[in-house]
Predict the structure.
Amino acid sequence: MTGARSPAGPVRLESFEPFASLGQQGRTLLSQGQAHRFTRAAEAIVHKGQPVSGAYVVLEGRLRVFTISPTGVEATLYTLAPGETCVLALNCVFNDLLYPAWVQAEVPSTVCVIPGPVYRRLFETEGAVRDFTVRNLATLVYRLMSELEQVHGRHHRQRLVHFILHHASSQGVLRMTQQQLAGHIGTTREVVARLMQELVADRLVRTARGEIAITDLFGLKRALDPLATPRARGRRRG
């Protein structure tokens, strides 16, 4: 993983559980070799097929783990928020595997890398670290199952609506480009552009450069209905 140190100084790993409650031996072990890295928005952190040096814990920002199809279409597997670790990376550390996907910073992010031998030792000696690992594994399985449900159970219009509803701010605003949206829902920017035009025509959202604002929350939720159709055209699209 590359990147310059955050100019504001990294958030300490010890601010998050389980690392805040380690015993003296665990704290001493944790201090051996951990590194903080600052990554810019859209910067690649891990490439598919790359060896993984340790456990990646997000301290600030948000990371996106994704795959790329043979045709070049990206699809998000899951995202990582502060305090979360990448279980795919842990699997590589524990089983000596190469990383099976790509990781990118969605926003400026700070990540702590705990060397593999150190994390494995903490896993053996600290119950809190074992619980943390299992909890993150359970979260990953849930997110992947949810993503599979989205892929196999909904067409692109529904997936786009679902993503907007679940990632918009409390003010109903989502700041993201159409290319980024396409990468998350596993389609092309052209498809997203067409679907956004439909949502705007249906008066469900308003768009500006790099921004989407929900204008009809209940109408947008109704658009998740498998039988829902664009009002302006009256037929199923996407």
In short: Strands lie at 35-39, 44-46, 54-60, 63-68, 74-80, 102-105, 109-115, 173-174, 205-208, 211-214.
